[in-house]
Amino acid sequence: MLIDLRSDTITQPTPAMREAMFNAPLGDDVLGDDPTVNALEAKAAHMFGMEAALFCASGTMTNQLAIRTHCRPGDDVICDQLSHVYLYEGGGIMANALASVSLPQGIRGKLTPDLIREYIYSPADPHKPLSRLVVLENTVNKGGGCYYTIPEIAAIRRVCDEHGLLLHLDGARLFNALVETGDPTQAYGQLFDSISICLSKGLGCPVGSLLLGKASFIGQARRYRKLMGGGWRQAGFLAAAGIYALDHHVERLRQDHARARRIGTLFSSRPEVEEIYPIDTNIVIFKLSETLLAADYVQKLEQIGIRGITFGKHLVRFVTHLHLTDEHIDQMAGALQQLTLETTY
Length: 345
Known about the structure:
Blueprint: E1 3-4, H1 15-22, H2 35-48, E2 52-56, H3 59-70, E3 75-78, H4 84-87, H5 92-97, E4 100-102, H6 113-118, E5 130-137, H7 150-163, E6 166-171, H8 174-181, H9 185-191, E7 194-198, E8 209-213, H10 215-227, H11 236-248, H12 253-268, E9 273-276, E10 283-288, H13 294-303, E11 306-307, E12 309-310, E13 315-319, H14 326-336, H15 341-344
Parallel strand pairs: 1-11, 3-4, 3-5, 5-6, 6-7
Antiparallel strand pairs: 2-8, 7-8, 9-10, 10-13, 12-13
Helix pairs in contact: 1-11, 2-11, 3-10, 12-14
């Protein structure tokens, strides 16, 4: 059996989720009368203490809608060098919002108040763009699933308030952070001007992300969603999966984290593994020795039934998810005994 750890996006709906999807009442979301979409948006907004929400096809769309809505052409967005919004969203900050980007280098992709201050331009300097928006990512994909705590975010919020900046959260794996910290969801609504949460990663939905914010902000984002061709019709099938996931798939994320740590232990004893990033949630990243290329190593792993992805020249990433079991990890341990240094080179 092939054990697929390329991403938590490879999951498929569980039987119970499929049943909820099949039985969902439907309408036309573009016309505003799909009851299941409306219920999902209201549920998510209430959960985070926000006024409104917008259901979209992807986290890239919700992030880019947020940046487009918050910024004017020529504004500047401050985000870490490892941010998904910068590295993996097709240049959308420039293409969609016509904004520039400032890129501090945080620790494992996490920004600090002092770092942000260094990249805030004076509004009196006409040579510089206007600093408008700070974007945080929680958890940080390229940082190995590390996360912010509420006190860390609150300190950044104070800097934003001091300088008149807006604060957006790319919460693609936010619930992974929340089950580790125990922080209340409503605290996030008090700290951020907008929040993007993804339903198709750890929560196991087939499609979808939500953008949360004030009603006026969401109203404008809805207009931009239409402009981008993001309006959809009987989307309640997908929204029903989101409702089911929020009700049933959040607490189980702890299992993914425990299994990620087991995988880290397996690979920590491998002679070709030079370093394993701290495993905080469901992402395992490890660095190979300089004599090994990640692309070659991933190919060798697939030959013994383990799928991962390259994350750099010498970096490999695994992501645990709801389809991975303890038995699969036992199977991995057995398969790794077939992987020798001779077959790796």
